[in-house]
Design a protein that fits this description.
The chain has 217 residues and is mainly α. The chain has one domain. The protein contains 9 helices and no strands. The longest helix has 31 residues. The radius of gyration is 18 Å and the shape is globular.
Amino acid sequence: MKKGDISWSLLLFGIILFLVVPSTRNLFESSTNSYPYLMGFIKFAILATMGEFLTLRIVNKKWEKPAGLFYRMFIWGILGVVIVLVFDLFNSGVARLLTKDMLPGSNSGFSLAFFTSLLMNMIFAPTMMAFHSITDAYIDLNFKVNKQKVNLKNVVEEVSWSHFVSFVVLKTIPFFWIPAHTIVFLLPEEYRIITAAFLSMALGAILAFASKKGRIG
């Protein structure tokens, strides 16, 4: 095992240990409740960025620093803040719809979790994913060796929109995100955002393995 593999694994183990040990777990829960936006920023900035390192490790067979690392961390952090807001927005809204019998089921348990995940991923997820694709493209263009002046037209053209629609939207949302987020919304509120961040890491690894085997165009 390479030094990078050990370092990355130790960091992941340390995060999991922090969530398992009672004293630090209590600190995590109280901080999440008291500072939801700040904690959302930190969770995604760290875990999703770790996912980017892991993806490059799988694809290139070596550890590399993602281009524009701190910009990527900042974008992930901002997304974490937005996801904190959106999770509560959709969860509360769906609970209200279930209470008014505008959706089938009760306003708790599986019905609440499933419809929250379904509506959130149908309404919000494509917009968030498109935004993230554009920011990634902007960062990539700015860090190319022979870069030209970067403008909105360059950035939009850099994104493979056919792949975005056919794979990211039409495959990852129904087959990964809706089932995964259903499980997330069955968890206590304090653990939803960090679980979502872990899922982002996991999906990146899955896609990297699939891409490496030539299953993704």
